[in-house]
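Progress note, sequence design subtask.
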């Protein structure tokens, strides 16, 4: 151990001693013989009381030991290191720990190898989850400047976050992140290179949800196919030079963890379910049931901690007090590095923090399907075990140095407050061992092997040329390949296209060829000839990649690939046949049902049979769902709009709403795509005015070959139909547009003689203002969120929502102050089915003293919209109630628009 390493962890020991007053015995020493509690000045251990009304004979409680017990005591990282039970030859070494980081929950590395740490500093700071949504979360960035393996140099890149959901490095000094109970992903950038983000830009919207913090969007991850996937979202998003687009997917059934293997298969980690999900087929094709995909005994963990401190209670407890069924998994990684034994490469790993284990998963392939098993089951072991009850592995990642890093939250409580409430089994066990006192820690470990020293090659991708990045696509460490591909796509540097094509055709490294193919796809430079060449190869792994990448070409209008897909549905290799079926299904080939029935009759491989039958079921379900998805009026608009789009609009805007390429070498489109477009999904006035009067010139700085001619000679119903359709297909979600609304806009703009320019149109259309940290939000009444805390009125802008503490009274108000005067014009909010306001007024002010009423309206169930015309720029707006009602007043998803 070098001097710096020893010195660094001596400091950690000292910090721990300061926090604990003196280092206690190892955490795994919980002998009940001791009678005095050293944490409580030698007072007797507290008596554990059985909650009132508990049936001690019920399966959850029967046999429980609630005798006074020695507390679980946190120890230093070096002491915890002794608690690990590893496979032969492996070692765990700490590289970053408290007090430098606290409550780490996820890590990511940027192109220069700097490690971003997501710190959930408000997670379960006591047994009641007090202050869990206070703005105290942060994202720190750490660097090993002298390349000795210790991340000693750090900065708080982003602070004051409300339980942040993920961190995604997104180019030089830039990350993507999102807060809890929000719907928006933001891009944060450090523009002055001081290590702290100073700009915040909206990146994407529509990805959020509300509820328990364990059940919200997390782990947004850029995959090999250049799409980004996250948990709890039945959609994927993608950055393009024209903007962020979206597509629907199946339900990921993931909770905390998204990763991919060497061939781009995305794996999601279920939390409460305790097992991986959606690993058989890419999630974009939907959900498929695979019988027996978890082999016998897979769900049984082998834990060395016997405290029985888990939510299922005694019904899932072994005789030694350890867990007998996986119940809370978190964090995952397919190891793709080059500095651990080769048998680990492309193997899936995940943490089970309730069992204090890290599991390796063996993937057995058969007839186009994947089946999972614990490779150490016969030995009744796990890849990593710990005897320390505070070891909480919640994330892991292949690191730039070729090893695997493991994030250890190192804490007493791992389950969220909903499962630790008064009277619960889990609360009783936590209090028995006083584990609710152990907070504010966290360690990151490097897993190494004695035969494979870590790499000391430091990434410097931000300073490298695009040619250098292309060469990294053949790196033996998958992290390098992934990052180089992402940065090449973000740069959109097409000068390396010929080099990429050569790599894709002839490189001796199969994985380099695959990354080159997808980099070409991400640059908009993938040619049909290359895809067809791969489709006709005898390498099934390359055929699968070509089938998936070819979907993009088809979506952009190249129909020549359909015959190749049908041909490969009859491929000898089951994996290839299954992929051809999935691609044909998602592309919506007209005779797909006949093709699936043909596959059922001709190919007995289990994978083919599984996919063909379930695709047929999905088609039937979709047909039935479509008949009931919309009201009768909406169905007329949607169906009419689809017919119009397919006949007229698809020529320029693409059959899948992605735009149609011009065929030029620079990848230009004839017209912009609609998929995920904030212009299309935003205020409907934009699209209505565009169709009525046409649009010419650059759009957000990009030129297009085509010109959007005026369609105003068509009826109001015609325009309402096509706009309603494009706002609700191609992965979009928006309100339907009525012919009456089109008529209003037509009347208001009847004097316009020429097409709009984009800038002129945007200046007219109400634009949503997205909440910033310098907004001031207040209310005359607000309900309590929890003991000792108050619900922030700012929650009205998210899914969590805000409401008054009491019933509605005249004069109650909700107010927003923005930093700069704006021409405010519209407010939208959702009050649900019960807590909507009675009649209310909108008032505006420029100084907070003189208020001017600009609109009045009666509240209604669900979405409320109120607009007004006022050319005066103001920075304050408030809603004021005009009548008394028995129910409280609530709002969520509040939106404010300005012209």
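Output:
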């Amino acid at each position: 151990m070098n001097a710096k390493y020893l010195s660094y962890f001596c400091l950690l020991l000292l910090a721990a001693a300061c926090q604990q007053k003196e280092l206690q015995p190892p955490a795994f020493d919980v002998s009940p013989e001791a009678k005095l509690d050293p944490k409580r000045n030698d007072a007797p251990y507290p008596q554990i009381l059985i909650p009132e009304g508990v049936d001690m004979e019920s399966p959850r409680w029967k046999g429980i030991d609630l005798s006074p017990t020695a507390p679980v005591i946190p120890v230093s990282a070096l002491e915890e290191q002794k608690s690990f039970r590893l496979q032969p030859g492996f070692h765990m070494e700490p590289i970053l720990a408290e007090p430098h980081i606290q409550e780490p929950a996820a890590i990511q590395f940027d192109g220069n190898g700097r490690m971003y740490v997501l710190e959930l500093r408000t997670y379960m700071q006591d047994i009641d989850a007090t202050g869990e949504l206070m703005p105290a979360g942060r994202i720190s960035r750490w660097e090993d400047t002298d390349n000795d393996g210790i991340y000693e140099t750090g900065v708080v890149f982003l602070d004051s976050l409300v339980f942040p959901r993920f961190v995604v490095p997104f180019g030089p000094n830039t990350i993507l992140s999102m807060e809890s109970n929000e719907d928006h992903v933001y891009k944060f950038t450090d523009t002055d290179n001081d290590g702290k983000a100073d700009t915040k830009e909206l990146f994407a919207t529509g990805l959020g949800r509300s509820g328990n913090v364990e059940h919200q969007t997390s782990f947004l991850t850029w995959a090999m196919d250049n799409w980004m996937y996250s948990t709890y979202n039945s959609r994927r998003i993608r950055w393009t030079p024209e903007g962020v687009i979206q597509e629907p997917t199946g339900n990921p059934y993931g909770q905390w963890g998204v990763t991919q293997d060497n061939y781009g298969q995305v794996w999601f980690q279920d939390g409460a379910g305790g097992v991986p999900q959606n690993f058989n087929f890419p999630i974009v094709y939907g959900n498929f049931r695979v019988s027996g995909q978890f082999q016998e005994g897979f769900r049984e963990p082998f834990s060395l901690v016997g405290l029985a401190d888990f939510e299922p209670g005694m019904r899932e407890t072994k005789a030694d007090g350890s867990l007998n069924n996986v119940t809370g998994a978190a964090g995952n990684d397919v190891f793709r590095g080059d500095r651990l034994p080769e048998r680990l490469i492309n193997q899936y790993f995940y943490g089970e923090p309730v069992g204090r284990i890290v599991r390796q998963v063996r993937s057995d392939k058969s007839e186009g399907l994947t089946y999972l098993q614990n490779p150490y089951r016969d030995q009744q072991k796990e890849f990593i075990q710990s005897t320390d009850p505070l070891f909480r592995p919640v994330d892991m990642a292949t690191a730039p140095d070729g090893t695997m890093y493991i994030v250890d939250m190192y804490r007493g409580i791992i389950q969220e407050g909903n499962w630790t409430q008064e009277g619960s089994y889990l609360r009783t066990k936590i209090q028995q061992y006083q584990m609710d006192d152990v907070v504010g820690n966290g360690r990151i470990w490097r897993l190494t092997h004695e035969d494979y020293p870590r790499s000391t090659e430091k990434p410097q991708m931000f300073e490298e040329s695009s040619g250098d990045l292309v060469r990294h696509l053949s790196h033996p460490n998958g992290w390098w390949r992934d990052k180089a591909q992402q940065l090449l796509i973000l740069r959109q540097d097409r000068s390396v296209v010929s080099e990429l094509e050569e790599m894709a055709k002839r490189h001796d490294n199969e994985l380099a060829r695959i990354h080159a193919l997808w980099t070409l796809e991400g640059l908009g430079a993938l040619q049909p000839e290359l895809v067809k060449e791969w489709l006709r190869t005898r390498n099934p792994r390359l055929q699968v990649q070509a089938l998936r990448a070819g979907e993009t070409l088809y979506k952009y209008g190249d129909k020549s690939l359909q015959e190749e897909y049908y041909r490969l549905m009859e491929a000898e290799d089951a994996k290839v046949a299954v992929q051809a079926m999935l691609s044909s299904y998602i592309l919506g080939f007209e005779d797909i049902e006949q093709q699936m029935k043909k596959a059922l009759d001709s190919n007995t491989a289990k994978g083919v049979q599984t996919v063909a039958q379930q695709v047929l079921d999905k088609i039937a379900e979709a047909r039935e769902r479509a008949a009931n998805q919309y009201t009768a009026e909406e169905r007329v608009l949607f169906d009419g709009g689809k017919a119009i789009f397919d006949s007229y609009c698809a020529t320029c805007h693409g059959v899948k709403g992605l735009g149609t390429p011009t065929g030029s070498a620079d990848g230009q489109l004839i017209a912009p795509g609609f998929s995920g477009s904030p212009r299309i999904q935003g205020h409907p006035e934009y699209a209505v005015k565009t169709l009525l009067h046409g649009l010419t010139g650059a759009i957000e700085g990009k030129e297009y070959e085509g010109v959007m001619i005026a369609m105003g000679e068509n009826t109001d119903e015609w325009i309402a139909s096509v706009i309603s359709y494009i706002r609700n297909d191609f992965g979009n979600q928006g309100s339907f547009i009525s012919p009456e609304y089109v008529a209003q806009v037509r009347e208001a703009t009847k004097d316009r003689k020429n097409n709009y320019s984009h800038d002129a149109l945007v200046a007219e259309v109400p634009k949503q203002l997205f909440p910033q940290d310098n907004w001031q939000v207040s209310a005359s009444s607000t309900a309590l969120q929890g003991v000792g805390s108050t619900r922030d009125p700012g929650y009205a802008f998210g899914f969590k929502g805000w409401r008054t503490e009491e019933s509605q009274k005249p004069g109650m108000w909700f107010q927003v102050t923005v930093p700069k005067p704006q021409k405010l014009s519209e407010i939208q909010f959702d009050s649900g089915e019960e807590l909507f306001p009675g009649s209310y007024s909108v008032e505006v002010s420029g100084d907070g003293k003189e208020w001017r009423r600009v609109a009045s309206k009666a509240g209604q169930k669900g979405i409320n919209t109120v607009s007004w015309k006022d050319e005066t720029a103001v920075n304050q707006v408030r809603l004021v109630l005009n009548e008394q009602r028995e129910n409280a007043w609530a709002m969520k998803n509040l939106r404010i628009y300005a012209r």
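The two ends are 63 Å apart (CA to CA). Work on this subtask will continue into the next period as scheduled.
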